[in-house]
Amino acid sequence: MWRTIASTGLLVLLPAGAAVHANTSDAIGSAIQLSAAQASASASTTAPSVKDAQTRAVEALRWQLSDIFTAEDSGPVRVRMPGEPPLGAPSEASVQLELRRLPARLKDCSAPQLSLNAARSDRHTPGLKRLQLLCANGQQHIVSVRMERFAWRLSTPQPLASGTPLAPARLAPVLTPLGKLRGNGFESAAALSGFEVRRRLRAGEVITRNSVRAIPLVNFGDTVIYQVSGTGFSMQRSARALEAGGLDERIRIELAPGDWVRARVIGPRRVAP
User: Fold this and answer.
1) Among 38, 94, 103, 131, which is least packed, fewest CB within 10 Å?
2) What does the alpha-carbon distance between residue 171 and residue 204 come to, in Å, rounded to a whole number?
3) Contact at 8 Å (CB) between 187 and 154?
């Protein structure tokens, strides 16, 4: 028969004529509470929380961003998600990615997959990138990422006046954010051989193409040798330089009064077509 236990308010099946004591009621109540607690614990371990789903999706995005923007010459990729501390200045050549915000329904996105419609070389150019996020359940989102590349570029530890030759002793590498650099800069001292400072450089300034020029091998008014070579013949004649120029630069030369052509500087006071 069904009997109601007053202390628990529950219906319990007891044998007919069985007496109900206080300790019986307490034991039944304790057993029921323990069973409820075990069921709750079992549910919490088998059903993933919303926070767990969000965390898995964020880590999937972090891994995919690192994979997309990895380049052989760029060093490690560091990703900053919204709410995380700033990455700060790196100590090595690297790529830094900053995700502006997460999609509002990211927790509902199963198997998130990022794609970037850009050539492999373009995706390594610093700046804002927009990626498409596809989910297995059909959701689609647009994710914005700010990319910055840090690489070693040559600078001058001391101020240099205009016209100063760029000898290796005057150069030093510095870790540079390429997105803030006007021009690509120079990676090796050999690339600056034969160049001089075009304008005054401040101490620590990164050297770019616009801040240097080839050391003139021909000056305005110089008498130069104009050398023309072809299959089975070679000819040279004197001309007058109408412009100054460094190695491989093209300048105007005067072959005769009123007759001028453009020629390439190939050596000290020597030019060719």
Assistant:
1) 38
2) 10
3) yes
Strand ranges (DSSP E) for the chain? 2-5, 10-13, 77-80, 94-99, 113-115, 127-134, 140-156, 172-177, 195-197, 205-206, 212-214, 223-230, 233-241, 250-256, 259-267, 270-272
Burial class (CB in 10 A: 0-12, 13-18, 19+), 239: buried
Token digits of residue 38: 């075990």
Per-residue pLDDT of the chain (273 residues; tens, 9 = 90+): 444 444 444 444 445 555 555 455 555 455 445 444 554 444 444 444 556 878 888 899 999 999 999 988 788 999 999 999 999 999 999 999 999 888 888 888 888 899 888 776 788 889 999 999 998 888 898 999 999 999 999 999 999 999 999 999 999 999 999 999 988 899 999 999 889 999 999 999 999 999 998 888 999 999 999 999 888 888 999 999 999 988 888 999 999 998 999 999 998 999 999
Q: What does the block give as tokens for 176?
A: 């540079």
Are 155 and 171 within 8 A, CB to CB?
yes
Task: Mention every residue, 6+ apart, whose C-beta is less than 8 A from residue 243.
Answer: 218, 220, 251, 252
Task: Fill in the amino acid letter for 193.
Answer: S
What are phi and psi for residue 160, nearest 5 degrees?
-125, 135
